[in-house]
Design goal:
Shape: globular
Order of helices and strands: HHHHHHHHH
Oligomer: single chain
Helix content: over 70%
Strand content: under 5%
Distance between the termini: 48 Å
């Protein structure tokens, strides 16, 4: 399928591969820098600088992932020819659902959490500023994306898509509750900051595992065990750091 017409000769598959290269570059930096704020002393210069790099990488990675997913939705077989004959992914609807609609949802979730988490700390003394239009728009966009993922998961009979969509509904609900809380607690901004940025890490590691597995071991790509690894690790980090904050103690390096 031609993307820019005969004069350019670039197909959707060509654009897909270019986006994948950019995605790998920004995503790799994000995957590594994610651990620096987690392991470093909270509030330190290293923590802050690494957090900025991680946030920017997540915003870029998520935006590029939207482009990758869009290419997959438009041309599922052309962008994933190695799956065309696989018994678990052999038809266009399944490829489009898993690597198109579900991945575009995960991409929007990553951008949503990265931006929201960044605003939580930037606006810790001006809570009302968390309701700026981009933050509100991302909540609406994520709600649409997770609903769409749920519907398409049901239509193609993929429980994983339906299950993972629930994370999006929970994210929107908790984000909006904090954003429109007229009297948040003194530590609420920090609790939300931890939830969001570690959540962005969970999201990008989940996508990394899924894409990596489908290239190396396609039959394991949709197993619950594989998808649960980043979720369990991420939730443990969120719970640990939030409990330290609630107890009034500075979280030590994990």
């Amino acid at each position: 399928m031609e993307l820019f017409g005969d004069s350019y000769g670039m197909t959707i598959a060509d654009a897909f591969h270019l986006f994948v290269i950019a995605h790998i570059v920004t995503g790799s930096v994000g995957l590594v820098t994610f651990w620096i704020p987690v392991l470093s002393r909270k509030g330190s210069l290293v923590h802050r600088r690494a957090g900025v790099v991680f946030t920017r990488c997540m915003l870029a990675t998520g935006a590029i992932a939207v482009a990758i997913s869009t290419c997959t939705i438009l041309a599922p077989i052309e962008t994933h020819p190695h799956l065309a004959t696989h018994p678990d992914f052999g038809d266009a609807d399944t490829i489009r659902g898993i690597f198109g609609w579900m991945m575009i949802y995960l991409a929007i979730l990553t951008v949503n959490l990265a931006w929201y988490g960044w605003l939580c700390i930037r606006n810790k003394r001006q809570h009302v500023e968390n309701r700026e239009w981009r933050n509100v728009a991302l909540q609406v966009l994520l709600l649409i994306a997770c609903t769409n993922c749920l519907i398409h998961g049901y239509l193609i009979g993929q429980p994983l898509m339906m299950g993972i969509s629930l994370v999006g509904f929970a994210t929107v609900a908790t984000n909006v509750r904090f954003m429109y809380n007229s009297r948040p607690g003194p530590k609420d901004w920090l609790l939300e900051h931890i939830k969001a940025l570690v959540g962005a890490g969970i999201s990008v590691y989940t996508a990394f595992f899924a894409f990596g597995a489908v290239r190396l071991l396609p039959e394991a790509a949709l197993t619950a065990g594989l998808w649960s690894v980043p979720l369990v690790v991420g939730l443990a980090l969120i719970i640990y750091h939030q409990r330290m904050v609630v107890r009034g103690r500075r979280p030590r390096p994990a």
